[in-house]
């Protein structure tokens, strides 16, 4: 009998044996995010850590999450399954973007992409509709898959989608009208949701033969319930001439003309259209990204899983490759791995070049709930963990600089003590305040309130104890230096 995840393709969603991982709780707000255990061993780049844990986490902790380098929570979004939570630029401004929706056991999803400004107001919700076929024929509000949510320099969004179709799979040991997943991508206008460009891997069958797939047609695969996942699209980057698409199950990246035709292919197995120099191998990859593109060549960075649930050999690495179009070569430049902690990530993951000058790289290990930052010499400067291996996953993870003043007020809660009260204060998502002031108030609507205590910020939640507070109402304010950034409601206690 094949294990359940064999037919499920490549995304390990939940653990078989649930394992407990500690979570945080707060008095001022009902959040239960997983604890982020941080081991910082060097100088890191500036920014916060952006994660989207799911699986064996508390419901009140399965959300888009931001942490700082000390492991303090900074922001928790609504309870939902998310992917690709990060900061991007839209029209010259920093925005946060993430996918949210339903994840299928087959390792893809149906959802939409949310774009929030630096007050956390949702300014755009990008959706995709069309005549998509689903495993149970049920229609969905939006067919955007979880794997990519990339804003282009032209302020459009690149997303993936999976469509079910019947196809002749006899060339690879299947049946003549088996069900398979076609891998699509779309470029969408963010304001109108209009489709500007689209692409289907199956339409390129002459240039992407099914026989090159490393995903085999398993025994119980080929039905509408369990379609064959030939390609598994998982990343798209805009390039000077069109796009670069990563197809995980082909161990390949495809450089596409704007019209969808394939110009060249780089393969992690044998180089594809290029001769391999040094170690230029990769397999079952994620997050393939293009840098420094010229007419002569480009740099390709990717998360080299090198593992699947059925194929676990060498450790996962972060890979950087140089492609030379004149010499027709692909040269291995970097291969990042932590010698103290070799990881076998069977699904998901990301590789983020943080800084082109010092070459720091941030990696999220997908099905293994760990992130690591490497310096320019390939040394680990930070490792952090937020769940048991293969029980909590974050599809991708990023370090991003982010400054936000939420549109909501700070939260406050008070518990009485024998001599007074303890005040708990937090302001979800606020990045810049560093101290609190506590005021006593005479009524819920009083405005001329009297300062009775102050405290420096201590992580997500700060508490102060009050002895014999003068009234039974209080209010708190969050400040940066002496500038008030936000004020809570007056609350009775
Ligand atoms: C406020 O504190 C009380 C107990 O002191 C608790 O029952 C309540 O859930 C807290 N409210 C929030 C929003 O956490
Ligand atoms: C922290 O990281 C260093 C360097 O990778 C390693 O030697 C050490 O064992 C780690 N400590 C813990 C507690 O994981
Ligand atoms: C970008 O800014 C222009 C000019 O203000 C505006 O018309 C356009 O809608 C904006 N695009 C997005 C995606 O916000
Ligand atoms: C999905 O595949 C079906 C065939 O199964 C096809 O009729 C439909 O047009 C495809 N949808 C899209 C959006 O390409
Ligand atoms: C494929 O065809 C064979 C022979 O006709 C049949 O036994 C098998 O059930 C088919 N498989 C699927 C998944 O339809
Ligand atoms: C796409 O453009 C390339 C280069 O102009 C051309 O060779 C190719 O035939 C075009 N493909 C399609 C499908 O139009
Ligand atoms: C790259 O992969 C190929 C095919 O699996 C293998 O023959 C070769 O030894 C690998 N090269 C390196 C440098 O690991
Ligand atoms: C990209 O180009 C810049 C400028 O030429 C250079 O400093 C940088 O090292 C290059 N990055 C890579 C990864 O080659
Ligand atoms: C990148 O690293 C260099 C060298 O440490 C530093 O001077 C520069 O400020 C960094 N750039 C950014 C954008 O952080
Ligand atoms: C406070 O103001 C609200 C609405 O402005 C009002 O309904 C309420 O009665 C006021 N409470 C007191 C104690 O004045
Ligand atoms: C708060 O922080 C400032 C500067 O970081 C420090 O000078 C001050 O003593 C701190 N106050 C308290 C009450 O800890």
Residue-averaged pLDDT, rounded? 95
What is the radius of gyration computed over CA atoms, rounded to a whole number of angstroms? 24 Å
Shape: elongated
Binned strand content: 35-45%
Q: How far is the N terminus from the C terminus?
A: 61 Å
Which range best describes the helical content: under 10%, 10-25%, 25-40%, 40-55%, 55-70% or over 70%?
Answer: under 10%
CATH architecture of the largest domain: 6 Propeller
Q: What profile does the largest beta sheet have?
A: 5 strands, antiparallel
Write up this protein:
- The protein is an all-beta fold.
- The chain folds into two domains: about 5-400, TolB, C-terminal domain (Neuraminidase, 6 Propeller), CATH 2.120.10; about 410-490, Immunoglobulin-like.
- The chain is about 0% helix and about 45% strand.
- The protein contains one helix and 39 strands.
- The protein has one helix at about 5; strands at about 35-40, 50, 55, 65, 75, 80-90, 95-105, 110-115, 120-125, 150, 155-165, 180-190, 195-200, 230, 235-240, 240-245, 250-255, 260-265, 275, 285-290, 295-305, 305-310, 310, 315-325, 330-335, 350-355, 360-365, 370-375, 380-385, 390-395, 400, 410-415, 420-425, 435-440, 450-455, 460-465, 475-480, 485, 490.
- Strands 1-29-28-27-26 form a five-stranded antiparallel β-sheet, with no helix packed on it. Strands 10, 11, 12, 13 and 14 form a five-stranded mixed β-sheet that branches.
- The radius of gyration is 24 Å and the shape is elongated.
- The structure holds 2-acetamido-2-deoxy-beta-D-glucopyranose (11 copies).
- One 2-acetamido-2-deoxy-beta-D-glucopyranose (NAG) binds next to loops.
- It comes from Penicillium argentinense.
